[in-house]
Amino acid sequence: MNLLILLTSFLLGVFIKVYDELLDEPVLKSYATLPILNGLIGGIVLTGVATMLYDPTILPFIGVSLIAMYLGDTIFYNSYVPYEHKSLNDTVWIQGLFVTAALLLIAFLRDPAGLTVLANYDIKNMVWLVGLIGGFIAIPVEGFLFPEETSRLKTVARIFGACLCLIALPITLYFTNLFYDSIPLCLGASIGMIAVSVIVKLLFVKTVDKTDPRNQSFIMNMLRDWRQAPQVATTEHPIQNTPE
Question: Number of structural domains, the chain?
Fold first, then answer.
């Protein structure tokens, strides 16, 4: 693989996450000016089109990721997480889906074989499909388990995810008979997104009100409540020992 295109995918992830953070984080609102946002959108378009032209099999990954983000933001999060939700305007994901669909059509018309090859029944396509399904599941699950913007557990979880991507990346680059180029490109974009997220959390979002449940660990609170459940039940319904 051309290392330049791998760097392009990394920049794609950086541009996407910087755009996301500027709109989501109150401490960064002053930087969310129209010129900066338009510049980021331009960077997303340029790097996104470049990666698409290099390997159109990345487009389904982008489409599935947008759907997963939309579901995570509007259904899973709002239905189950008892905290105030901060996210991009939902129309962003829908607009992204329309753009992705248009790019898929262009890619198909430009080179039908580049996408119809995915219909073949072979190990390379099976690995691609597993990655597609895995990404669709991982995005809303990560948002559900770690919804907090500033909890330490969320930052640690993302650093761990970046380490997994860094381990997987050379494997996908070496075993080209098993992986389409879209797989390492997705890993490169993921590393870029995680890097920006961790940097923002560590450098900019420092003041945390620990009494605010949005800054606590949702998953740790769930585990704590689960551990305390039997004790609560025992307290509420004590066993009465009567002498015989």
Answer: 1
